[in-house]
Specification:
This protein has 2 domains: 98 residues, Urease, subunit C, domain 1; 261 residues, TIM Barrel. 22% of the residues lie in helices and 26% in strands. The protein is built from 11 helices and 15 strands. The strands form 2 sheets. Strands 1, 2, 3, 4, 5, 13, 14 and 15 form an 8-stranded mixed sheet that branches. The N and C termini lie far apart (58 Å). The C terminus is likely disordered.
Length: 392
């Protein structure tokens, strides 16, 4: 009788939550981590993943994706695009609202192999159209109904989402955020606000946010509404917000990550708390691709690998609204979600959301992924836009 169902052998384990960074084997039994030791015999395992020369990390957590295909216009399916690319936990950021939640629960959360969580859109509609914003009519922004749905689904809803851009909210961005904050305070859950292209001073929005709330698209180059001034300095309101415990997320997207903005913010000492993709069908081929590609951009910006791993494991796990999930860490007895990453040393150009390229020398790629103790096949990265689809 074998001791383990699966052993991930020979890799360098990086677990930011515990501080472990060393060569270890990971033994898995009954969907849980049974051992993390310098050497485990492959003969004691039903199956072995050879991770020699690679990095074994907690299952990646992407804090901002869109995975409600067929309802939210820009969405992709979670299993091939998230789990198949190394992300064991994908957090949908506002694709679904209170009215569209039952379908999301039935058709996405429950059947997906990916662990799918959600920031519930403060609009009852969620995101049903690429161009028609869900906050143009405030009658849809019903915080009481959002709270009711969140309270009924504590295992899957981890906060609320509000998009503040003028194209999506009209003149209602600040009021939408106030309603989102009300829902967050009523439930103890964080509010994620989408910035960039606002019709008001972004510092007015930052002033409404508090501890554990999240600003996504933190390094957007879309102005007005970014957190970096024309002089290349981080706005005082963003510094004040961070001091209050507001967290800043990348949310790369098709229009919300600028090399120049990121470089200016980092030069000013302002790093992101979390790295996420804002993955959807209009950016999956380019410029985003997957979470590992977005992580590679921050390696190029000078962040050390353990810090980049933390920003996609333990840090997003701590940002989620319900504690005790055991996400974003490797520990004996914990659920066996882990990702194996390789670093390819090859020069290639990576684009930001404005089409600006930087040439990188190191590129992270997922080579294996385990979800709840079972190995999942790595899917090829999407390199061509979905046929017949255009953002406009």
């Amino acid at each position: 009788m074998t001791r383990f169902d699966l052993v991930v052998a020979g890799g360098t384990v990086i677990d930011p939550a515990s501080g472990l960074e060393d060569r270890r084997d990971v033994g898995i039994s009954d969907g849980r981590i049974a051992a993390i030791e310098p050497h485990l015999s492959g003969g004691d395992a039903a199956s072995v993943i050879d991770a020699t020369g690679r990095y074994v990390v907690p299952g990646l957590v992407d804090l901002h994706v869109h995975v409600y295909p067929g309802v939210a216009d820009l969405s992709v399916a979670p299993d091939p695009t998230c789990l198949g690319r190394g992300v064991t936990t994908a957090v949908d950021a506002g694709s679904v609202g209170a009215n569209t939640w039952p379908g999301f629960r039935r058709w996405i959360v429950d059947p997906s192999r990916t662990r799918v969580l959600a920031f519930l859109n403060i609009s009852l509609l969620g995101q049903v159209d690429t161009h028609l914003g869900e906050l143009h009519d405030l009658r849809f922004a019903d915080p009481e109904r959002a709270v009711k749905v969140a309270v009924a689904n504590p295992d899957a809803i981890v906060g609320f989402k509000v998009r503040l851009s003028g194209t999506l909210a009209g003149d209602n961005g600040l009021e939408g955020l106030r309603r989102g904050v009300w829902a967050g305070r009523a439930t103890g859950l964080p509010v994620m606000s989408h910035i960039g292209g606002t019709r008001f001073d972004i510092e007015a929005a930052l002033a409404l946010m508090g501890s554990r709330d999240i600003v996504t698209h933190a390094f957007t180059g879309w102005n007005p509404g970014g957190i970096v001034s024309d002089a290349g300095r981080v706005l005082p309101g963003a510094l004040d917000a961070r001091a209050r415990g507001v967290r800043f997320d990348v949310g790369h997207g098709a229009g919300s990550f600028s090399w120049a903005t990121a470089e200016a913010a980092l030069a000013d000492g302002f790093l992101p708390d979390t790295i996420s993709t804002d993955l959807h069908r209009f950016n999956i081929a380019s410029p985003v691709g997957d979470l590992a590609t977005t992580m590679s951009k921050f390696l190029h910006l000078g962040l050390p690998l353990p810090q980049v791993i933390a920003m996609t494991t333990s840090a997003p796990a701590s940002s989620l609204g319900v504690p005790g999930r055991g996400l974003g860490r490797l520990e004996v007895g914990g659920e066996a979600d882990l990702t194996v990453l390789a670093i390819e040393e090859e020069r290639r150009d990576l684009l930001d959301a404005l089409g600006v390229a930087r040439t990188v020398d190191r590129h992270l790629v997922p080579t294996a992924v385990v979800r709840a103790g079972r190995e999942v096949a790595i899917e090829p990265r999407v390199t061509e836009p979905p046929a017949g689809i255009s953002p406009g």
